[in-house]
Design a protein that fits this description.
Structural class: alpha/beta
CATH architecture: Alpha-Beta Complex
Distance between the termini: 34 Å
Strand order of the largest sheet: 4-2-3-5-8
Low-confidence stretches: none
Organism: Streptantibioticus parmotrematis
Pfam family, one: tRNA_edit
CATH topology: YbaK protein
Helix content: 10-25%
Protein name: YbaK/EbsC family protein
Number of strands: 8
Strand content: 15-25%
InterPro entries: YbaK/aa-tRNA-synt-asso_dom_sf, YbaK/aa-tRNA-synth-assoc-dom
Number of domains: 1
Length: about 180
């Protein structure tokens, strides 16, 4: 099956490749919550050495406007810490100290430590996906991501990526679409 974006030899439905995904990502795809048919979520096998966004785009022909990064943010207020996923297009940066901090009701917000992000998500660093994040986390998604016909996101592992209709991400558990999240 041809890929809707990028230079990939094949892009089968991700549901045919569940064993190649991180367990939390596979679990969400098995019980797909959204109005977009799960068959539209595709999997592409990629070299883990090319997982970082800039290299990935160059090697696989995916412009930054069609690649979405998912980062884990820690919002702190006193002793309370709220973890959240933030999804922005690769040519932008998440407004962590402004919009994210305010949305989480935090006094301070920063990127979560790598061991925290990996441990709490059950995913590999460099492959964290908005699909499969803990259900009780806020999932903040830039509106530009949801209006993109297809975006590349992580598969939960450094090897392989998911090609997802942007609108499908808005239906994930905890998703909140925010204008201007990626600046």
């Amino acid at each position: 099956m041809p890929a809707p974006i990028g230079d990939f030899d094949e892009a089968p439905p991700a549901t045919e490749c569940l064993d190649l995904l991180a367990p939390p990502v596979a679990a969400v795809l098995r019980a797909w919550p959204g109005p977009v048919p799960v068959e539209r979520v595709r999997y592409v096998d990629t070299d883990p050495a090319n997982a970082d966004t800039a290299v990935f785009g160059e090697v696989y022909g995916v412009p930054p406007e069609q690649s979405a990064n998912c980062v884990v943010v820690a919002g702190k207020r006193g002793q309370d810490v709220t973890l959240a996923g933030c999804v922005v297009l690769a040519h932008t940066r998440a407004d962590v100290n402004g919009l994210v901090r305010r949305h989480l009701g935090a006094r301070k917000a920063s990127f979560a430590a790598m061991d925290t992000a990996v441990g709490e998500t059950g995913m590999e660093y460099g492959g964290i996906s908005p699909i499969g994040l803990p259900d009780d986390w806020p999932l903040l998604i830039d509106a530009a991501v949801t209006s993109t016909p297809y975006v590349v996101v992580g598969s939960g592992r450094r090897r392989g990526k998911l090609l997802v209709p942007g609108e499908a991400l808005a239906a994930l558990p905890g998703a909140v679409v925010l204008e201007g999240l990626g600046g």
